[in-house]
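Notebook entry, cofactor series.
This is the third protein in the set we're modelling with a bound small molecule. For this one the ligand is fe (ii) ion. I'm keeping the input format identical across the series so the outputs can be compared line by line later. Sequence and SMILES below, as received.
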Amino acid sequence: MYRPHKETQQERIDRLTQEAEKRVDQEGTAEPYTLERFRKTMFSKLRKVGVREFDDHHVQLVNYIVDVYEVVQVLQLRAPNQETLDKLTLVLDKLQEYTVFHFGEEEIFFEKIEYPHRQTHIAQHKAFVARFLEIRREIAAGRPQFVMDLFFAAFGWLFDHINQHDMKYSRYVQDNPKLLTSLRRSPPKPRPS
Ligand SMILES: [Fe+2]
Ligand SMILES: [Fe+2]
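Returned structure with ligand:
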């Protein structure tokens, strides 16, 4: 009787990593995928929205995603021990806190500039946070293999959300230069301490 091959956890991690590598670097090389190369590629692909505070936020978000990737690499090499799990919790807490902060600041900004597509954009923020929390619950329930899903959610959000959807409000601001004047009077908060 035909039985479909059930993917092992290691095979799944290998497959997802290969997919991540392809998404970051379409050219692909035989070089090992080091953390530093990942960081460089992420920053080279990150687009600027032209609102200084939000560009700074996006840089910080990339840094936190790279921190998550660092732990993901350790989880690929060996079974998780307490130290790795503690580090994972720490990097995910930081990414979560900063993401919620950043979304909140963008949403306040959308109200101020009366951005016409704000409802769609805010719905995307909400969906991402819901997905993030759902995967964190899986990890907390003792299934650290879900860290790859979380890494993908964060990583996918970065490229699809910032580079496409945030760029839409960027164009709206560029097309309405007066909005930048009102923004300068009350800039978004820098970052939580
Ligand atoms: Fe953003
Ligand atoms: Fe956004």
